[in-house]
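RETRY 2/3 - previous attempt timed out on the joint model. Re-submitting the same 876-residue input unchanged.
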Amino acid sequence: MPPVVRLLAKRLGTSLIVLIGVSLLIFAIARVIPGDPARIALGPNATPDAIAALRDKLHLNDPFIMQYGYFLADLARGDLGVSLYTNRPVVRDIADFLPATLELVIVAGLMMVAFGLPLGVLSARYRGGWIDHSIRTVTLLGVSAPSFVWAVILMLLFAFFIPLFPIAGRISDTYSIPSVTGFLLVDTLLAGNIRAFGNAAWHIVLPAFALALSGIAQAARLTRSNMVETYDRPYIEMAKSYGFPEKRIAWRYAFKPSLIPSMTIIGLDFAAMLGNAFLVEAVYAWPGLSRYGVAVILRKDLNAIVGTVLVISAMFLIVNVIVDLLIAFINPRIRYSQRAS
Amino acid sequence: MRHFLKPLAAALVAATALTGVTAATMNQASAETVLRLDEVAVGELDPAKASDYADSILMYNVYDTLVIPNEGKPGLQGHLAESWTADGNSYTFKLRQDVKFHSGNPLTAEDVVYSLDRTKALGQGLSYLFEVVEKAEAVDATTVKFTLKNPYSPFVASLVRLPIVDKKLVMANLGDGDGDNKDWGQAFLSANDAGTGAYRITAHNPQQESVMAKSPDYFLTVPAKAPDTVRLRYGLEAATVRTLISQGEHDISSQWLPPEVLKSLAADGAQLFTESGTSGFYVKMNTTKAPLDDVECRLALANAFDYEAGIKMVAINDTVSQGKPSTGAIIGGMLGANPPENVIKRDLEAAKAHLAKCKYKPEDINLELTWIGEVPLEERFALLMQANFAEIGVKSEIKKVPWALFSEQVSKPENTPNISQLFVASVTGDPDTLLYGMYHSSAKGTWQSPEYLQDADTDKYLDEGRTATDDSARAAAYSALNKRLVEIAPSIYAYDQVAVFAASKRVSAPALTDHAKAYNLSAFGFNFRFMEMNE
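RETRY 2/3 succeeded.
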């Protein structure tokens, strides 16, 4: 079996075990949060009979292990139950909200790569100069403040004081784009509506940048420190003595080995953004899954809590597997270690 | 460096081009008027489950009821009903014949009967208002008769919370379930409308937004300047609403904006809409646990509370506040309320005198003073009370309690905190729906009644209020009740709540700005047919 396939199989196997563990854990945690889900769902004025009927329907009076059994049986049929919060199937809610979050996180992830890595390279390349100092100061600010602080600051600066960007939502109300994939940037193109694409792209800039800022700063600082370390290696000295051009040394001999830790961090940040997007989504009224997740936790919406956490966990694991594969692709030692094992 | 500046310059050029495209598109906005407002998520579209403010806004615009409140004065007027008569425990309503549902189906008495049966069968929202109804029957196509199990004077007022659904349409869209009625159309009505209202639903996502369009076939005249489209957004953050209104991208805020944000919007020139007369802020004392099982102790706290400071805490500016001084247990303007000059005031000397008569020593008292975690304003009141009570030597500990935990705690008196804070509203505008659930001994142990009050006189007056048939007798019963509730102080009547909404200059809403055009029913002023767009 090729080493990369072996690595993939191994990672998928462990991911499945983690996912089962997460489902059991979140299933239990959701049930120990204070409050009767039936009472909360039906409202403060619901009749005792209606509450009892809903508890019965949700199997809340059955032993925990039986409840988990019902959940697994439904899950096997692709049914995550009905949300007590929105009164719609959880699968439909997730299908509605997940693309918005994924789109935001993917754009933020691209920004992390597009800005974080080049800034790190620049900083290392001009180590000790004003470019380095400026980048280090800016990235220090980036890692020091959480995303929601940046969300509010960016909104104030670029939507309120200098109204360059829209304040809220994914697209202006004037557009009606049929949902095909749920990703507006894709759906607008599929609809052949370039103006709508531009509008959607303009809406995503501020929230994605607010979400990505901390990751950009982290990636830049890590890339810089790794590259500075790499620049001190003897083979770089040798490359210089051979008279290789600066650009070639920077990109081929210094940047590539420094990329592995940065890739790992970007991968982890990317996955973490799925859960952390809540406050950015709240500030920009972005109809995403993170915001939905927090709302259902506050309402003790059992089915939706479990469904949302499972989906976010699955995304987290998928991203980690992809990062592992990319790193194995970049670093031959990892491929060889798979072959050896 | 030049190498890195090139892509940056290209990105800026692309960004500028996109801004141009976007701006051009925005300028193409049609002449259609759009009203944009927000509320707390979720928007429950099923009228039988409607209970929150957002649900009520949807309900009053998409559906209609048999009766509605009078404009600018107490009492009710016919709406879908042309007239009604009462005979003992029976009420007969004659329906208008010119009303059609959005589906095109005509309104019939069968629809009214079905709406009531459906509400009772689901047992959610405000269905408890109709537990008293034994049966509803269609006498003929335009006459419907309700028979009550026992006398209940506020019944007609309760009908402002019975939206009428299109039976034929719902029956054609039943989901999975048992019996003839299967799921009673719950799945269908959670995403679609089956109403007669002035607005019809064109898109609905309960966590994100409901979009409504003016219905061309409404049975009443809707002014041309009423908004053509309404976008009711859910769950916007205060900072977002603040920015959106300032930039002219939003029209009416929810009432849940912090006073500071309302103040800042008002300073920027936003209008302030208000709605009052239906709800109050009550500080509830558990009368079953020491030391508040002693009426003297409760009166000491009620006299020690600084009512004036409370009003200042929720003031927006010199003329608008989120609270009016309280005159008693009944909200000002409601049946049985005290006159406005009878404002309750702080009296530290009286507080000390009552405390001296209390069977518990002040040094032995340490009150558990809670605030609901989802309502940050209550923390400020908890701190105010802690300081006020400390002035008469009573110690207290402040505790934050999430709503879910609170609603569990109050089901047992021993778990119910000494003091909790709640906003309570009359859902029909009648004092019965404000007070019965809070103070009748049969209603103890709900979120509304953490007092666990057991008082024979209170029960007597509340029952009289339900059974007396003429308004003067009811008013007398509620006045006596109000006096009794001040005497035994199961709660501190902190202030009469005023819902304040920030609004852009684009919209006029006389029902929310002119007292003579206001309605004594929560959210009814948000009938969009009463609003006008100014551009």
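The two ends of chain A are 12 Å apart (CA to CA). Closing ticket.
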